[in-house]
Write a structure and sequence with these properties.
2 copies of one chain form a homodimer. By secondary structure, the first copy, chain A, is α+β, with helices and mostly antiparallel strands. The first copy, chain A, contains 6 helices and 2 strands; from the N terminus they run ααααββαα. Chain A binds chain B through residues 1-2, 4-5, 10, 75-76, 78-79, 82-83, 85-87, 89, and chain B through 1-2, 4-5, 10, 75-79, 82-83, 85-87, 89. Chain A binds a DNA duplex through residues 6, 24-26, 36-43, 45-46, 58, 60-63.
DNA sequence: TCTTTAGTTCACAATTACCGAACAATAGAA
DNA sequence: TTCTATTGTTCGGTAATTGTGAACTAAAGA
């Protein structure tokens, strides 16, 4: 819950769900159109990773992250969908 | 989301949902069995109130608060239920 | 090896949350 | 009315958390 309560992190998760092949930090910041230092982006990804919301794997020089859909849906059915739906309602898009 | 991401606040909401007639600060802290200064409790209630999750009304010397069930369900269908369900799963009870 | 790109770690600054003390509001007793 | 007890809010300082730049690590290609 704490991981998803931050506005930047929930928007990262929203972008990750739209990108089938995952995203890295650089792609994320450019899609979010927010100027964010890479150290900050790295911290957000770390929190999402440690809370079990995403997983990341190295692909050469970059780190691609995806949402842990199956695990989340089986553990907390409907939770992520409900949160993202509410978030979209508040933030347009 | 920020209002519900705090462990104390989500447990307050869980208690409020169980209490049909609402609760005040003193009752809440005794039910949660956590030693919390009343100023802290007041702050948590203020955040829940300002985020639209609860409403409060004076009854003599005390302030009784309840969850805004209808408003939340119509605006964000299933959200609060999903969050509380996930919270119970993590915190037993 | 040198360079470039992507990301992490660290230390400090900025922000936020917690808590005690003083205050406000209500109700009942003297 | 005045005094007292109870509930909750506000305020100021401190503790905890978060954000950020600088230095560092890792991988790939020239």
């Amino acid at each position: 819950m704490h991981a998803l309560s931050d506005p930047v992190r929930i928007s990262i998760v929203a972008e990750l769900r739209k990108a089938e092949e995952g995203l890295n930090c650089v792609e994320t910041t450019s899609r979010l159109k927010c100027t964010m230092p890479k150290s900050t982006c790295s911290q957000h990804y770390r929190i999402l990773r440690e809370s079990g919301i995403i997983y990341s794997e190295r692909r050469g020089v970059e780190l691609t992250s995806k949402v842990r859909r199956k695990e989340l849906d089986s553990r907390f059915p409907g939770l992520l969908d409900a949160i993202l739906k509410a978030w979209r309602r508040e933030h347009g898009e």
